[in-house]
């Protein structure tokens, strides 16, 4: 039966799974993508939660999407349009605020209001971070080496890294080692004196992690988020027109055009493994599909502990997978608004509402939010990152109305004994509303409806284990050649023909597409392009970097 | 200018004495200048109350590097070390005691009373720690390579370390890579289920640092310590006569080798002429010229106080100001009318009393203690490590009486409100209150108490910002980055001025590691 036989089956139709499928189809493979939900995109999805109100339900901004993917898959032609998201507005309880925009002059003057020294330092800091990004970027497009082998190819990679590092100016070396080892605040303390500036900048160092702004390792995550680029400009975030789901749809469209078959509402029951080889998948409805290669974009816990019998896997590997840290730490509140929120410190509508609005008024505020989470409580006063995409893209809300998306941290997946998220959901949502209301008192009156997503909801709805939006902590011991687990950072698994291609693999989370693309390139190294389709094959893709 | 020496050592702490010894042994005539009336720095024995003596700061010796003990023949110079068979005992408020014997089998038996599973895991962790610690131990003895222009020797030594790294085998090698940046709370959870055991092992990853057990990188601190002592919770080594006896023996060894020691000699300034250190100036105004000047003081005191910073580039000064060294430890030394009775331990004669006693029963307890310090308050429920040295060395206290030496963490150098002088008694009371939950009769026994706040550590002992290790032990200040990236080779931007204290690689504790490494590098310089 040919109909259920493919070259590659991709498990999960998130942006990485789709990217993986597109690159494989592009190389002439017969690819089938199986998505559990009724919509594609995984955590990069747009849904009409309330009639007329379309939300980027989980992930809400673009910044890390790899330019080579946009190019290779010609995403703009498939409908990807990125609209600018300019600046970050940080209201303060004092009635003051900090408002940074892409316009250097403006931002400089704004920061100077708080500290002349910091205004100077900010320019320098920007340059330093760009140098760091230039150093790290190729690593995002590189398959991690395996430091435990003596295989020359692997050693060359290590040498390549060593040489690149050697190539840095000593000043940049200094910054680089600090970024890899320090906490966001320790790092920022060296540059700035303004508390609110450090607080709001450090926020990007903790997003999606179970770390505080003072936890070593967060400086790297800071960089990870700094790397955002659209049309080559560093640190410029953006909205996708139609919400982040539009990104997934563009990739899906490209994949289909390249010949991939995509099925939604096709939840997997198990991966069919016979004598150490993955041979296919069985759906919950009993259907079976077979392929030479199975590529899983879901996280390792689902792939190895749910879809495969333990007996098929080596004990140490299982140990490592069980140990792999998810620790979801964030929730999401999506609000349908009748009007715009009105901030005490900068009343009325204005450009400050078009960018990110960050509730991160002080370093202590951020750190105390983390302290609550350490002991199993959601933050009494959480860090909140808000955007109102309807101001930039009216298509997502009825005329005159708005959608506001609030990313909330910390919301620990594991609440302290006696609490459970189903009972805490409402309190959690109200706490977010109350927190924002302290800065924008009119909020409560303009709420038409709201959707509260706890880490438990993220797990149930989107298959993100423990609600971790990056399919696993971005902590140093789970990065690069340690991601997801030691010895298996090259997208391969202990099971022949089974690969990983999701955010749980290098270089990790965010709408980057890099894992999906890199995994595809590794898969193609292992299997030759099927000749009968070779004529359709697109020009060979180079491993960037 | 009065006299000129070939080598002048600023400060007679243990690392300074070790460096001085090796230089003297090599035929130089180092002059050690110590500010206080006795050498030893943070490893001293002092009478803090009439008739009561104890190791006022560092209270356990080492683990000293075996080669240092051997080369300096410290036993011959009067050092007697005792190793209580129960190295560490962890107490829980509900009256249980976890006795961790140095003998791993005995320790495992004790652990079995809490959890069979943990009892099986305990030797596994020790095994892994001794293997990994072995590799780290090699790195601790290396001079960190020159980042910009590594020379042949650097590359060779790195290659050697790389080799032994591979010898670890895949499993332990990956453990080393994975554990290094990890939170120690995660590491202990990988092995143990017993909270008390988790806490006492994790404590080793946070002692003397401004890290909590949930701080990433705290595992590295544990691994560095494992390099000298692979007992998961560490063991205990005490010098008869207190920690001061260690440095006294070192001083004797250095002098025997030809070093000269002057106490009450407070160096106020390092003279610099066109980029070269030429002399030191004492408090009295006396000036002593030297071909080489070595500082046992911390990097900031040396380069920002003793040296006029105008001799340094603004960039270097900025980086050194950012060198993280804000202390988190205080010390309280008690003069006791008798032996405290711990609910969890039997009366006198319990060998557990002779080792280190750990108070901090849960990971969360330790983390909460840390939380307060982040906001500039000392912990209302601090993590304590105490010893009762008078049990192993009765000469320290009047007959029948005892001294109890207590480390208190966290006590941040910078308080949010009020200076330390106004908080000293509050800190002392917090310690007594905490202890009385474990030894109810303690308050009645206290005859006197010496409370050493982080501020006192700076004022009395010259530890800038009260940091007992001359700087945070953390990934960003380790190896080639200690004290600063590319200034990890015991030299400074000022020619003829060297560092040999804990602010240099490997730093950390009473090991003599920094002093020995520094001596090796400085000798290379002096010889050509």
Task: Please give a quick description of this structure.
By secondary structure, chain A is of the alpha/beta class.
Query: By helix and strand content of chain B, what is the structural category?
Result: alpha/beta
- Count of helix runs of chain A: 17
Poorly predicted regions of chain B: none
Strand tally of chain B is: 18
Strand percentage of chain A: 15-25%
Q: What's the main sheet of chain A like? A: 7 strands, mixed
Task: Please give the oligomerization state of what you see.
Answer: heterodimer
Cα separation of the termini of chain A: 42 Å
Low-pLDDT stretches of chain A:
229-235, 529-545
- Cα distance spanning the termini of chain B: 26 Å
Helix coverage percent of chain B: 25-40%
**Based on DSSP secondary structure assignment, what is the total number of beta strands of chain A?**
20
What is the overall silhouette of chain A?
Answer: globular
Beta content of chain B comes to 15-25%
Give the largest interface: A-B, 35 and 37 residues
> With helices defined by DSSP (H or I, 4 residues minimum), what is the helix count of chain B?
17
Helix content of chain A: 25-40%
- Roughly how many Å is the radius of gyration of chain A? 23 Å
Structure explained in plain terms:
The complex is a heterodimer of chains A (545) and B (528). Chain A is of the alpha/beta class. In chain A, helix 1 packs parallel to helix 10, helix 3 crosses helix 4 and helix 8 crosses helix 13. The radius of gyration of chain A is 23 Å and the shape is globular. The C terminus of chain A is likely disordered. By secondary structure, chain B is an alpha/beta fold. Chain B has 17 helices and 18 strands. In chain B, helix 1 packs parallel to helix 10 and helix 8 packs across helix 9. Chain B is globular. The model of chain B has no long low-confidence stretch (mean pLDDT 95). The chains are: A alpha/beta (545), B alpha/beta (528). At the A-B interface, helix 6 and helix 13 of A face helix 6, helix 12 and helix 13 of B.
């Amino acid at each position: 039966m040919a109909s259920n036989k493919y070259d590659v089956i991709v498990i999960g139709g998130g942006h990485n799974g789709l990217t993986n499928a597109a690159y494989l189809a592009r190389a002439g493979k017969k690819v089938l993508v199986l998505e559990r939900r009724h919509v594609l995109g995984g955590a990069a999805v747009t849904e009409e939660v309330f009639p007329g109100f379309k939300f980027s339900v989980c992930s809400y901004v673009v910044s890390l999407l790899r330019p080579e993917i946009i190019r290779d898959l010609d995403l703009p032609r498939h409908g990807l349009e990125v609209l600018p998201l300019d600046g970050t507005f940080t209201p303060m309880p004092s009635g003051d605020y900090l408002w940074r925009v892409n316009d250097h002059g403006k931002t400089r003057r704004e920061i100077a209001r708080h500290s002349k020294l910091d205004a100077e330092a900010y320019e320098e800091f920007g340059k330093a971070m760009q140098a760091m990004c230039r150093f790290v970027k190729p690593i995002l497009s590189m398959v991690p080496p395996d430091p435990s082998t003596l295989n020359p190819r692997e050693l060359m990679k290590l040498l390549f890294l060593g040489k690149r590092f050697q190539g840095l100016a000593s000043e940049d070396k200094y910054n680089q080692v600090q970024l890899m080892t320090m906490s966001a605040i320790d790092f920022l303390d060296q540059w700035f004196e303004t508390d609110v500036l450090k607080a709001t900048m450090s926020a990007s160092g903790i997003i999606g992690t179970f770390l505080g702004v003072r936890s070593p390792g967060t400086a790297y995550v800071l960089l990870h988020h700094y790397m955002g680029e659209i049309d080559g400009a560093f640190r410029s975030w953006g909205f996708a027109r139609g919400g982040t789901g539009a990104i997934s749809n563009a990739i899906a469209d490209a994949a289909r055009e390249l010949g991939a078959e995509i099925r939604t509402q096709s939840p997997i029951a198990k991966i069919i493994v016979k004598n150490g080889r993955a041979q296919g998948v069985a759906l919950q409805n009993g259907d079976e599909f077979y392929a030479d290669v199975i590529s899983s974009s879901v996280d390792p816990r689902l792939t190895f502990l749910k879809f495969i019998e333990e007996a098929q896997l080596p004990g140490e590997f299982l140990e490592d997978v069980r140990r792999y840290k998810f620790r979801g730490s964030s929730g999401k509140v999506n609000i349908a608004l009748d009007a715009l929120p009105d901030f005490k410190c900068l009343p009325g509508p204005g450009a400050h509402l078009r960018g990110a609005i960050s509730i991160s008024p002080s370093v202590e505020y951020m750190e105390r939010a983390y302290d609550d989470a350490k002991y199993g409580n959601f933050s009494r006063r959480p860090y909140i990152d808000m955007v109102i995409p309807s101001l930039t893209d009216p298509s997502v809300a009825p005329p005159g109305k708005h959608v506001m998306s609030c990313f909330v941290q910390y919301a620990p997946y594991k609440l302290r004994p006696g609490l459970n998220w189903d009972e805490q959901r409402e309190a959690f949502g109200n706490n977010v509303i109350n927190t924002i209301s302290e800065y924008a008192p009119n909020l409560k009156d303009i709420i038409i409806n709201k959707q509260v997503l706890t880490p438990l909801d993220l797990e149930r709805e989107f298959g993100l284990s423990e609600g971790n939006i990056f399919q696993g902590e971005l902590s140093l011991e789970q990065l690069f050649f340690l991601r997801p687990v030691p010895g298996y950072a090259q997208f391969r698994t202990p099971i022949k023909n089974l690969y990983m291609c999701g955010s749980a693999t290098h270089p990790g989370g965010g709408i980057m597409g890099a894992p999906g693309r890199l995994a595809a390139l590794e898969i193609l190294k292992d299997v030759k392009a099927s000749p009968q389709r070779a004529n359709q094959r697109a020009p060979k893709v180079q491993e960037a970097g | 200018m009065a006299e000129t020496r070939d080598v002048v050592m600023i400060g007679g702490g243990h690392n300074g004495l070790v460096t001085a010894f090796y230089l003297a042994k090599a035929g130089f005539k180092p002059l050690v200048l110590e500010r206080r009336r006795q050498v030893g720095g943070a490893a001293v024995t002092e009478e803090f109350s009439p008739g009561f003596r104890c190791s006022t700061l560092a209270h356990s010796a080492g683990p000293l590097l075996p080669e240092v003990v051997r080369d300096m023949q410290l036993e011959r110079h009067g050092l007697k070390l005792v190793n209580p068979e129960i190295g560490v005992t962890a107490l829980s408020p509900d009256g249980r005691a976890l006795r961790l014997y140095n003998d791993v089998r005995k320790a495992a038996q004790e652990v079995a009373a809490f959890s069979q599973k943990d009892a099986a895991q305990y030797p596994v962790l020790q095994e892994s720690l001794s293997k990994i610690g072995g590799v780290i131990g090699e790195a601790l003895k290396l001079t960190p390579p020159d980042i910009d222009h590594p020379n042949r020797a650097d590359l060779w030594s790195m290659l050697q370390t790389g080799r032994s790294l591979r010898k670890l085998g895949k499993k332990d090698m990956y453990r080393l890579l994975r554990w290094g940046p990890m939170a120690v709370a995660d590491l202990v959870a990988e092995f143990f289920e017993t909270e008390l055991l988790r806490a006492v092992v994790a404590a080793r990853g946070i002692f003397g640092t401004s890290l909590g057990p949930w701080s990433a990188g705290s595992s590295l601190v544990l691994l560095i310590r494992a390099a000298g002592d692979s007992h998961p919770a560490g063991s205990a080594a005490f010098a008869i006569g207190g920690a001061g006896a260690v440095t006294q023996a070192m001083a004797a060894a250095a002098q025997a080798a030809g070093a000269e020691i002057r106490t009450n000699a407070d160096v106020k300034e390092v003279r610099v002429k066109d980029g070269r250190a030429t002399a030191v100036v004492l408090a009295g105004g006396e000036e002593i010229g030297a071909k080489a000047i070595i500082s046992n003081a911390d990097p900031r005191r040396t380069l920002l106080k003793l040296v006029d910073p105008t001799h340094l580039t603004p960039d270097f000064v900025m980086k050194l100001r950012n060198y993280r060294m804000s202390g988190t430890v205080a010390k309280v030394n008690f003069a006791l009318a008798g032996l405290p009775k711990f609910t969890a331990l039997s009366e006198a004669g319990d060998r557990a009393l002779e080792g280190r006693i750990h108070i901090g029963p849960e990971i969360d307890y330790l983390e909460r203690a840390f939380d307060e310090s982040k906001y500039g308050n000392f912990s209302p429920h601090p993590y304590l490590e105490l010893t009762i040295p008078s049990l192993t060395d009765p000469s320290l206290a009047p007959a029948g009486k005892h001294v109890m030496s207590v480390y208190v963490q966290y006590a941040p150098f910078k308080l949010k409100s009020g200076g330390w002088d106004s908080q000293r008694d509050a800190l002392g009371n917090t310690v007594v209150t905490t202890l009385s939950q474990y030894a109810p009769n303690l308050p009645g026994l206290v005859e006197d108490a010496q409370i050493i706040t982080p501020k006192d550590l700076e004022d009395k002992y010259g530890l800038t910002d009260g940091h007992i290790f001359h700087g945070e032990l953390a990934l960003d200040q380790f190896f080639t980055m200690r004290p600063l990236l590319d200034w990890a080779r015991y030299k400074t931007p000022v020619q003829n001025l060297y560092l040999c204290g804990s602010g240099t690689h490997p730093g950390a504790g009473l090991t003599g590691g920094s002093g020995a490494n520094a001596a090796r590098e400085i000798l290379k310089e002096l010889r050509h």
